[in-house]
């Protein structure tokens, strides 16, 4: 390493230590993100490019090892042990080959998914405990089994389609990989296993950021001024209803106030949901059946579609809204103009290969909503996040 590289390392170390101290003092999400970023820059400076690149190239093997360990119940066994568990004991649970499990365990230890308490003896870590959660397993299974084959084929799709930005829900990386012509939603409706994985993935997506009702001023912006004889909140394309269930836990209310809409296959896939939440089988490309609600909420919906499709979806909503009363609430990423982070950039790739959708900057959100007669009242973004709620209203006609 050259002298100036060592001095750059010292400066990165000083910055990383300072930002970790700042995090310890402030204990905020923003300070944690800043510390992580500074530490990542330091780690990157220490890595030889060839090592870093090889690790990245081989990283799908990490996923494979974690998926196999999950299938073998390794994470459950690790979380249950009071001292340590050997690879032979881990293998015995599913009658697997001990040597295979030992090899898988080495990868897990290297990547923080198990701790090594002696040769061939293992214990849990925070990562391995998280791997026992139902929603985490659904997320991993959906990404590994249903998304990875598309990601693998996407460069080939781009070669064949002259590197056009994908936007057609019937002709994108998804259709190329699965050799199908329908949308990803049509495909899910015909593949119950994939639908279950995807819907569980959606439930899990909630955990990375607190429920919006915890940081959005629900009382002032929704409840104050809400009319008794109207629905309060329509969750449009709300999956299995986990967001509305979370809302009702925080703001208890009786029947007729909360409405969940999604495709028939998804509504029929609901196993448990509060009976006060009304379920409506609805296609977002048809007129909105619930008129004059206080708010129409979309989470991770606009990012599934290009601007032209979003306009059609939103026009069905604006036709149902009452000027001066109804609002649109969109929970999605708001991509920074510079230095976008890993979550929004990678989610942008995930929605691109799947729907194909797109994550938007403030500027793109403003242009999109203005084009359908909506005015953004505010971007509500919790400190330290690049995801938030965009609150919009119908543009006033300006008449007297
Ligand atoms: C990315 S998921 C988001 C689900 C939920 N809002 C959440 O954040 O967990 C997209 C949802 O859009 C629904 N969807 C797709 N096409 C639709 C359509 N034409 N009409 C209604 N819902 C649709 C899917 O079934 C799925 O539940």
UniProtKB/TrEMBL annotation:
Top-level taxon: Eukaryota
Pfam families: Dimerisation, Methyltransf_2
Single GO BP term: secondary metabolite biosynthetic process
UniProtKB keywords: Methyltransferase, S-adenosyl-L-methionine, Transferase
O-methyltransferase dimerisation domain ranges (all copies): 61-132
Database matches in PROSITE patterns: SAM_OMT_II
Domain O-methyltransferase C-terminal as annotated: residue spans: 225-373
Keyword Methyltransferase: yes
Active site residues per record: 303 (proton acceptor)
Keyword Coiled coil recorded: no
Molecular function GO terms recorded: O-methyltransferase activity; protein dimerization activity
Protein name: O-methyltransferase domain-containing protein
Species, as recorded: Penicillium frequentans
